[in-house]
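Exercise: predict the fold of this chain.
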Amino acid sequence: MIPLYTLFVGASASVVRAALMGALTVIARMLGRSNDALNALSLSAFLMTLWDPAALEDIAFQLSFAATWGLLFLAPPLERWMRAALARWFQDPGAATLADAVREALLVSLAAQIATAPLILYHFRELSLVAPLANLLALYASNERLHHVQSGEAMAFREGSELFAFIERFVAALSPPGEGV
């Protein structure tokens, strides 16, 4: 099923990486072996470059592996730091619940952005500092839509939507002059 999905969506570098990592996880479980994400990530990179050595020069390949590395190795320490900081600041057992919400909404995305920042700066010579906030707004919008879909409400997001109008104005205000949304 994984190869079919990979071909169906276009087999970009990130899709192939995810498919290989998923297939390696399935194979490990079928063999009764433990799954190690770093091994799956490394073997995926090896197999992709074995198939096409020029993949190393592909920006999508580089960003996909860097973002995944960030999710594996930067998100957990960021989450531990956030839990400790919230526990210190609020001295409340409910801080763990707040940390979970922040982790889901911001820290995972921030970890991927930190990991990819050097590549983005190298390849594009610029870095968006509002990206974490934009991701937070996008997560909010997608969760709102999911909530309305799950509750059976027919909520059509269209250009006239109040939420999307706000997001568009917000992003436009933060964009450099001359760059539209």
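Check your answer against the key: Helices lie at 2-9, 13-30, 37-51, 59-73, 75-90, 95-124, 131-150, 162-174.
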